[in-house]
Amino acid sequence: MKKSKSDINRRQFLKNGAVAVAAIGAVGIGVNYLKYFSEKNNKSLLRPPGAVDENDFIYACIKCGLCVQICPIEAIKLAGISDGLSYGTPYIDPREQACDFSCDAMQCVETCPTAALDFLPFKKAGENALITYQKENPIPGPDYNPFVVQSLSMKATTKMGIAVLNTDTCLAVKNKGFKGSPRENEFTGIYRSPNPKRGERKASLVNDHLFNRDICDLCVTECPIGDTAIILEENITSDGQKLWKPKILDGCTGCGVCTMICPTAPSSIVIEKLEQA
Amino acid sequence: MKNIKKLEPIPAKLREDMPNSKLGITFKAWKALKPNKHKWRNIRWSVLIFMNFLFWVSFTFDIGILEGSLSGSRFIGIYLMDPFNALQEMFIGSRTGYFAMLTTNFFIGLTVILMFYFLLGGRTFCSWLCPYHFLAENAEKIHNYLVKKKRIKEHTYNIGIKYIFWVGFLLLAFLTKNLVFENINPVGIISRSIIYGPGLILLWVFALLLFEIVYAKRFWCRYVCPIGVTYSAVGKLSPMAIKFDLSKCGHCRDCQDVCLVPHELWFVKRGEATKEVHFAGPDCTRCGLCVDICYGDALSFNIRGFEKIM
Fold first, then answer.
1. B201, B218, B233 — which closes off a domain?
2. Domain limits for position B12
3. Among A7-11, A50-54, A228-232, B278-282, where is mean pLDDT lowest?
4. Do B169 and B277 share a structural domain?
5. Could you give the CA distance from residue B175 to residue B141 in angstroms, rounded to a whole number?
6. B-chain residues within 8 Å CB-CB of A64?
7. Chain B residue with minimal CA distance to A30?
8. Are B299 and B244 in contact (CB under 8 A)?
């Protein structure tokens, strides 16, 4: 009696187990198909600062969303089901809300429990910046703040992507100026201006800033990194006419504030992911 | 350790040894003595809803008490890490050689979780925290109702296949270099939906629930979920367990009817128990449903060896 019971059990286990193995195989095929599909379309999301190589990122990220929660300006979002295998991983859409370094020192990277956003390079950069500063200024100046020194170097270490200019639509290239608020009325993106009004320290609505420029240079003046990332290049043609063009330099971190603030629609400056080694 | 299931069973209880005979009343009257209460279920559901709500509150109102989601979080600054995710990470890392994701916080989170669930034991996570469990537990009631009304048939499988799934998901992670399981894991999906807002992927969860209602009871939790398997391995030798006292048992088996993992209460059947005292096995979720229903208080929450120390 007992023996036949365990026999039935074993037979049931083998039968159900075969179905289970088949199910796992089907999931495996599905995953590989999605992987092939996304590689073919070369569709990859712009990741938050400090993201490791996409191939490592996709498994190092456990989709907990701690980076989403810590970001003070809610720049980081979680990908939906339409992004296939990237479902639940964080990304930044700079046109909607760029990373403007409002948190000062890579909070999303620091909070990541699995180093999918790797804090190590930032830590090193911060330490090196302090050492360099102390060498250059044996007696610290009156406005010396180690936190600021560190956070500046950390910002510069960021490499989310790089800005790419579309010369066909850029206002500066067309020799046009710009007046008013940069984005459409209902736009809710915020940023912290590098040239703040007195007393203003927090991020404010993009549209609360009014500009009046003879030649549009919002991407240059509002860049949180400054003239190591982007400058307005002046060229004089043979007949004495001045030509303008924003020029992106190596210091560009791919934060996307320029993309967000660009008054043309669609944006004349976009962030592209760097080619991975 | 000897397999207590294979020991010679104690001879079945005689009629005069039944708890109702000792009191000199009928079995029915004895059962009626116990008021119908849901103490542990109410406590458990409150904890489950409160914790999942706390995740949402922490994010929405920006009060950093419980940040993150069920796959990884931070409770007042202490990192917590889902053990099955952690296991997959280590497996993939061993293939790609990228071990940077194994940070200090990662190990702190893993250690805290392992210690916590070792102390509580078994699949405590499932019935006390898992939001999918909450839905499935109620879906199970609908399923039972439909079976009772003879609208549908009961379908059961071998509970051993959960180990095949456990190995399979680890292998898949290793081979595809992806957290495959996290993509289809209803626990993480619901947790993220509660915290960050719902998405289309919830359709998958609904499909799963529908399948559980109309076809196989508790399909995901019983036969698939590797998170549960991991937790039951962690809490296997836990000091806390449901204790069964044969002398108080009337063998009505109502506890097995309400139990979420009835195979762990195998010893309540008349003539099956091999010892005077049994402890429920590692798949027990410590839900307390059996403790609530037991008419003779034969089942109770217990800390193993506690009486000896006292």
1. B233
2. 4-33+239-309
3. A7-11
4. no
5. 39
6. 68-69, 71-73
7. B180
8. yes
